[in-house]
Design a protein that fits this description.
By secondary structure, this protein is an alpha/beta fold. Helices cover 46% and strands 16% of the residues. It has helices spanning 15-24, 39-47, 71-77, 82-91, 104-115, 151-167, 190-200, 227-252, 256-264, 266-276, 302-317, 320-333, and strands spanning 2-6, 32-37, 56-60, 97-100, 125-131, 137-141, 175-179, 205-210, 222-224, 283-287, 293-296. An eleven-stranded mixed β-sheet has the order 3-2-1-4-11-10-5-6-9-7-8, sandwiched between helices.
Length: 334
């Protein structure tokens, strides 16, 4: 298996990607990581870490898609960008998975137009794993790929995310919830009400409407929403986690007694930090495209990149896309 890693996407590129690839490579059991980007800069970053080890190769790309580049314009003006070359490798069969921490809109656009959509899929969706009070994770879809959803799109998101949760997270019969302003069926806008009816009559394990607070309770394995709402939920969650940790640190530092107390619960604090740190989750799969594409946070460090590479390899190995197509076929046949 070959994983194409966009080496120019993260805010700290290519250092984060190079170190992430080096850290991930030993656990990939013979799989190869292809670092795609500015060859000279990649070589400089690798030299600081002792060079490029076996299992990692470099492919040059002369252009970089910035976070300010409009996606469609980037496709037209930057055909030799690291994102474009990664997607092309998948399209031609040179790569089995793609990982990028670059411009999300550009990754979605390149993947949608160059790879196409899976049979029966109408819109791709970004599925983000959220931490919960339980050991399991909640997969929220969509978190920004499609802000103009129809009820059918939301149903398909439920089908796609359920397949991912089952075959990658190991949820035997994923519980699917629909994000709404209340649990009652009479609540919500027209989109949510119509989507609820479709989900209720589907073969999914639909548990009904869930509220924002339920995302983190572990009541559902999959939470379905439109891309605008999902992206706001994601950004608010990230900001809240960072704020709470920062406030706790400031409060602990105020007195000697608190600092001593913090030492006594050091490992509990580290466990909490790891649970809400997006770096532990790596990246988010772009479900629905005809390939395995994982999108990372722009601020990803080497830990997040390494985790994303491993997640992408696992998704490709479990043939998630085949299960998604099978689920959509069952939907059309019913």
């Amino acid at each position: 298996m070959r994983i194409a890693l966009d080496a120019m996407g993260a805010d700290s590129a290519p250092d984060a990607e190079v170190e992430g690839a080096i850290r991930a490579a030993p656990g990939l059991k013979g799989h190869e990581v292809v670092l795609v980007g500015d060859e000279a800069r990649i070589a400089q970053a690798a030299a600081r870490l002792g060079g490029i080890p076996s299992g990692i190769v470099v492919r040059h790309a002369s252009q970089v898609v910035t976070m300010d580049d409009p996606p469609v314009e980037a496709m037209r003006r930057k055909p030799d960008s690291s994102i474009a070359r990664c997607i092309e490798m998948m399209a031609t069969g040179e790569a089995d998975a793609v990982v990028s921490a670059g411009n999300t809109g550009a990754v979605v656009a390149f993947a949608t137009f160059k790879l196409g959509l899976l049979e029966g899929v109408r819109r791709p969706g970004i599925a983000v794993a959220m931490p919960t009070r339980r050991a399991e994770r909640t997969l929220v879809i969509d978190c920004g790929a499609n802000v103009n959803c129809t009820p059918e799109h939301l149903l398909q998101y439920g089908i796609m995310a359920s397949a991912y949760a089952r075959h990658v997270f190991g949820a035997s019969h994923p519980r699917v919830g629909l994000l709404n302003i209340g649990e009652e069926s009479i609540k919500g806008n027209r989109l949510v009400k119509h989507a609820q009816k479709l989900l209720e009559t589907s073969a999914l394990n639909f548990i009904g409407n869930v509220e924002g607070r339920d995302v983190f309770s572990g009541e559902a394995d999959v939470v379905v929403c439109e891309g605008f709402v999902g992206n706001v939920l994601l950004k608010v969650s990230e900001g809240m986690a960072e704020t709470i940790l920062s406030m706790m640190k400031e409060a602990i530092q105020r007195t000697l007694r608190r600092r001593i107390g913090a030492l006594l619960c050091k490992y509990a604090m580290l466990e909490l930090k790891a649970k809400v740190d997006y770096a532990e989750f790596g990246g988010a799969p772009l479900l629905g495209v005809n390939g395995t594409v994982t999108i990372c946070h722009g601020g990803s460090d080497h830990r997040a990149i390494a985790a994303a590479v491993r997640i992408a390899a696992e998704a490709a190995a479990h043939k998630v896309n085949q299960h998604i197509v099978a689920g959509l076929r069952t939907r059309r046949a019913s």
